[in-house]
Known about the structure:
Elements: H1 2-43, H2 46-56, H3 61-77, H4 80-93, H5 97-114, E1 123-128, E2 135-143, H6 146-152, E3 156-162, E4 170-176, E5 181-182, H7 187-195
Antiparallel strand pairs: 1-2, 1-5, 2-3, 3-4
Helix pairs in contact: 1-2, 1-3, 3-4
Amino acid sequence: MKKYFIAGILVWIPMAVTVWVITWGLGVIDQIFGWVMSAIITVSPGQFSGELRHFREIPGLGILIVLAVIGFTGVLAINFAGQWWLKLWDRTVTRIPIVRSIYSSVKQVSSTLFSGNNQAFRKALLIRYPHLESWVIAFQTGTAAPEVNTKLGGEYVNVFLPTTPNPTSGFFMIVPRANVIELDMSVQEALKHIVSMGSVAPRIVQPKTPNQPH
């Protein structure tokens, strides 16, 4: 019975977690629509507010509308006229002191992660952490800034060290290139290995001869 019970858990846990994540994401989208509708109802005349409340209560409608707005925005963003409006919006937002730093940082990170030619998470690496006798898997996110290389006197790389079992949080670190070992496994395989806390082994690939750290 213990064997059957464990086998059943192994089947249902991935399904349950997947459904939970999708439900949470759709709930956030639907909540955004609810906030927008509440603002519209507040400023609408009394004769329209009642109809808008009934419109808001239609299940799943908020998700469809938000997805449609995102898709329509994407269509406009790739057109010449849409790009002109986006540039005007960027210039306007970047003139606001506090909003400017937040907006610019988030935009740069999202463009790096979602663009087709990005270099984010391009390699899986082995680095020493938290002491010299232990190793962890991290991901190279780019090369260190020229000023960092100049001040530290060498060649350094930017790495992201994810936590287990939640890889969306972690640490940003700058480490010497000579102290990292590049892995042959893909980023996807490395992520599976991290999320599973090492219980899911990556696929075997033909190993390369790494440069051992000093």
